[in-house]
Amino acid sequence: MITYSAVVLAAGQGKRMNAGKNKQFLMIGKDPLIIHTLNPFMNDSSCKEIILVIQKNEQEQFKHLLQSYQLLSKVILIDGGKERQDSVYQGLKAVTQDFVMIHDGARPFITVKELQQLLNRTELTHAAIFAVPVTDTIKKVSGKKLETLDRSVLWAAQTPQAFSLPLIKKAHQHALDNHFLGTDDASLVEEIGHAVEIVEGSYHNMKLTTPEDLKRAEAIWVETTKNEVKE
Ligand SMILES: Nc1ccn([C@@H]2O[C@H](COP(=O)(O)OP(=O)(O)OP(=O)(O)O)[C@@H](O)[C@H]2O)c(=O)n1
Ligand SMILES: C[C@](O)(CO)[C@H](O)COP(=O)(O)O
């Protein structure tokens, strides 16, 4: 079984959450959001290191939190950048394994089983991401012009997004050299003409972005915790 590094992104401002602090510290159940996110990577024996990308001014806060959860053994703290893509670029510099999973710190409900599933596909394709078929009808709006897109071919990309290290480094360097800014890492790999495989994920694998997401996350946590107790 191949091994990998995780690059977990937690250096954002959380503007849309409007919580007055980094949303990674918001509580879901009994633990902060970022702890939920880190746990599956801590528990996955194929994950050899977690590169946690944070804001420079939050180093002490994260160090203290990680110490209190005894998570420092596997975690390396790296300063992020202005955009998500810049933070990934910084995180990739610290990666030591041949494969890397890039994951939003704001997505707390990934499981070890899903990580293993994605890793298996990435070993074969060198580029694989979780995504789910969209369930809303999507409209493309250009000024007053409205176009309804064919929902049957639309998927909502999630993270983790997993790659061989040389491929994702090449894609990020190409993006930097060509001033290409993507909203996910797969788009940078597509930009250099490499196929990206979609692995169907879970609708539970939500990204906490707005205050409403916090309520939904709490409900998912209650549901999944109850199921774990039953098993
Ligand atoms: N410069 C950035 C921007 C985002 N992120 C991280 O990327 C993930 C996805 O980004 P998003 O959900 O948009 O977080 P924010 O950028 O913090 O949110 P907002 O756009 O509302 O400020 C988050 O875990 C966030 O911390 C990051 O590490 N560095
Ligand atoms: C990477 C991502 O989670 C895929 O859906 C999404 O693009 C991140 O967007 P954000 O605005 O940086 O949260």
TrEMBL record:
Coiled-coil residue spans: none
Function statement: Catalyzes the formation of 4-diphosphocytidyl-2-C-methyl-D-erythritol from CTP and 2-C-methyl-D-erythritol 4-phosphate (MEP).
Higher taxonomy: Bacteria, Bacillati, Bacillota, Bacilli, Bacillales
This protein's UniProt keywords: Isoprene biosynthesis, Nucleotidyltransferase, Transferase
Catalytically driven reaction(s): 2-C-methyl-D-erythritol 4-phosphate + CTP + H(+) = 4-CDP-2-C-methyl-D-erythritol + diphosphate
Top EC group: transferase
Positions marked as site (Transition state stabilizer): 16, 23
Transmembrane stretches, start-end: none
Enzyme Commission identifier(s): 2.7.7.60
Pfam families per the UniProt record, alphabetical: IspD
Residues annotated as site: Positions MEP for the nucleophilic attack: 151, 207
GO biological process: isopentenyl diphosphate biosynthetic process, methylerythritol 4-phosphate pathway
Family recorded in the similarity comment: Belongs to the IspD/TarI cytidylyltransferase family. IspD subfamily.
Originating species: Saliterribacillus persicus
Metabolic or biological pathway, per its Swiss-Prot or TrEMBL entry: Isoprenoid biosynthesis; isopentenyl diphosphate biosynthesis via DXP pathway; isopentenyl diphosphate from 1-deoxy-D-xylulose 5-phosphate: step 2/6
Protein name, UniProt field: 2-C-methyl-D-erythritol 4-phosphate cytidylyltransferase
Matches recorded under InterPro entries: IspD (IPR001228), IspD/TarI (IPR034683), IspD/TarI_cytidylyltransf_bact (IPR050088), ISPD_synthase_CS (IPR018294), Nucleotide-diphossugar_trans (IPR029044)
Keyword Ribosomal protein part of the UniProt annotation: no
Entry GO MF terms: 2-C-methyl-D-erythritol 4-phosphate cytidylyltransferase activity
Originating gene: ispD
